[in-house]
Amino acid sequence: MKSFSVLCALLVFVYGIAAETCLNPQVTSTSYVTEDATILTNVAFTTQFTLKCSNGVNDISLYAECEGKSLPAVRLSADNKYQVSWTDDVKKARSGDYIVKLYDQDSYAAIRKAIRNGEDPATIKSLAVVVLNNPGVYQGPWINSELLAVFLAIGVSYVAFTTKSKLLA
């Protein structure tokens, strides 16, 4: 009888571990990037996504990795909506696609272990991938309006004085 109860406890434990693993994850995402950097020093990157698992698992702790940065994925609602966001310096933010790799708790622990042991963390498979597109940030016009006004004032003054001197001569 004791071995039967140990077997049942072991099966419940294994079932509990298997129930938290997301099988065949499907991700739908939307993203936002700060596009006007005329007065900003940092560009904000935000992606919201919904994770659906074929086995119906909910409430998964997710972590993200983008360009070498480890980021937490914040759970927004009970229907598996998550958000990942970070900021980057305006001069360092490049235009193009940013690949955001999503990891569950077990694979994130494996990445940390690989880094600690000096191994390549790229060998660990991600749960899902989200692509965030940055069209580029607007840093203002090439010539500021104040500078253009000064050049126009100088040009108008030059034309006025040369025309006046020709009329008086």
From TrEMBL:
Compartments where located: Endoplasmic reticulum membrane
Keywords: Disulfide bond, Endoplasmic reticulum, Isopeptide bond, Membrane, Signal, Transmembrane, Transmembrane helix, Ubl conjugation
Membrane topology field: Single-pass type I membrane protein
GO cellular component terms, A-Z: endoplasmic reticulum membrane
InterPro entries, per the entry: TRAP-delta (IPR008855)
Main location: endoplasmic reticulum
Signal peptide: 1-19
Domain of life: Eukaryota
Coiled-coil features, chain-numbered ranges: none
Keyword flag Cell membrane: no
Free-text function comment from the UniProt entry: TRAP proteins are part of a complex whose function is to bind calcium to the ER membrane and thereby regulate the retention of ER resident proteins.
Summary of subunit composition and partner proteins: Heterotetramer of TRAP-alpha, TRAP-beta, TRAP-delta and TRAP-gamma.
Protein family: Belongs to the TRAP-delta family.
Protein name, entry field: Translocon-associated protein subunit delta
Protein source organism: Aphidius gifuensis (Parasitoid wasp)
